[in-house]
Amino acid sequence: MKYLCINAGSSSLKYQLFEMPEEKVVISGIFEKIGLKDSFWTTKINGEKIKGEKYLKDHSDAVEVLLDELVKNKAVKDLKEIVGVGHRVLHGGEKYSDSVLITDEVIDDIKALTKLGPLHHPGNLAGINAMKEALPDVKNVAVFDTAFHQTMPRENYMYPVPREWYEKYGVRKYGFHGTSHKYITETMQKLLKKKDINLIICHIGSGASISAIKNGKCFDTTMGITPLAGLMMGTRSGDIDPSILEYVCKESGMNISEVTNELNKNSGLLGISGHSDSRDVEQEAAYGDEWAQLALKMYNDRVSSFIARYYIELDGDVDAIVFTAGVGENGSEAREAIIKKLAPLGLEIDEEINGKIAGFKEIHEGIISSENSKVPIYVEPTNEELMIIRDTYEICNK
């Protein structure tokens, strides 16, 4: 049975077609610059990359080409082979604590939640509507990025602001990267053969978040009402003094939306070093650039601080610390710097083993802590698309 995973952005659409229940990726691809004259796409099948380009005026055009690519590249003989489509949706608010079959009510809820996900929801909805139009008889499933974090206790998701902000406007911590944190939790449950597992999961890359997992469920996480909160990231500031917004508005003449845009797109590693990709920052730091060196120290120190905080929140009862996502899976220098900062907690890294593990090396995963480390430390590749398809497969076959 074939299942399609869709991740639609404002001007992009990523997809993977899976053979289930084998969990085998048959074909994948990405459409970019949708709505622009120079839109193009890349298809990957059997290790080969095939590029195409033509004007795609909207997501419906992209989906039309996508389905044509599936047939043309013999990923399917007939589109009727596709049983279900799983869609990544940014925000499920408080209503959705799990993935759901998409109905008219669910679409209305996603529209209503656009106020909490203004950058992502228009693209998410465009992808859903395009697939429903192209394959009207196929089941569609919404997999919410916030769902996994809905098990947080009130003391961890409430902000110390006027309570009516929560009651009237839904101001609270929601958390994101939930699909990744859920995937890693399930992976570690199988690996350690323990259901009620306690973890600290470090999903660190261009976007970055850490979660504390208690008894197999999310107990706390770093991102907030939006993905801007928590850690310093590639282009996002993470936590800052909120008074900065009013101050910069007055000093610069920018409005609140413009300042928020700066915090989302021109801050983090980019704001300090001039580069958003950690690999570029590391290269400049190695050449002696002081701003790049400062950016790396700020980034790594903030990760260390949240690991320490969550270690305390979990009462020191931690089965494993797990690094995942771009930097987590590939950044051996970052992992080493972060763990060395945590030596007072009894954490210790095996530098030789750590240096051998990365997505582009022979070894992609494993334990990087030394035998003396108080908590085992792992590198585990995440797979959000597979998690989306697992949920979609389960819901479509209920």
Measured by DSSP, the beta-strand proportion falls in 15-25%
Query: Cα distance, first to last residue?
Result: 15 Å
Note the main sheet. 8 strands, mixed
Lateral arrangement of strands in the main beta sheet: 5-4-3-2-1-6-8-7
Query: Which regions have little confidence, pLDDT < 50, spanning 5+ residues?
Result: none
Give helix % range: 25-40%
Provide the gyration radius in Å.
21 Å
In total, how many beta strands? 14
- The helix/strand series, from N terminus to C terminus, equals EEEEEHEEHHEHHHEEEHHHHHEHHHEEH
Can you give the mean pLDDT? 95
Shape: globular
Structural class: alpha/beta
Total number of helical segments? Answer: 15
Report on this model:
This protein is an alpha/beta fold and 398 residues long. It has 15 helices and 14 strands. It has helices spanning 59-72, 104-112, 121-134, 154-157, 163-169, 178-192, 243-252, 256-265, 268-273, 278-286, 290-313, 325-330, 332-341, 351-356, 384-396; strands at 2-8, 13-19, 24-32, 40-45, 48-53, 82-89, 100-101, 139-144, 199-204, 208-214, 217-221, 320-324, 366-367, 377-379. The strands form two sheets. The chain has an eight-stranded mixed β-sheet, with helices on both faces. A hairpin with a 2-residue loop joins β4 and β5. The longest helix is centred in the C-terminal third of the chain and has 24 residues, at 290-313. The radius of gyration is 21 Å and the shape is globular. The protein starts with a strand and ends with a helix. The mean pLDDT is 95.
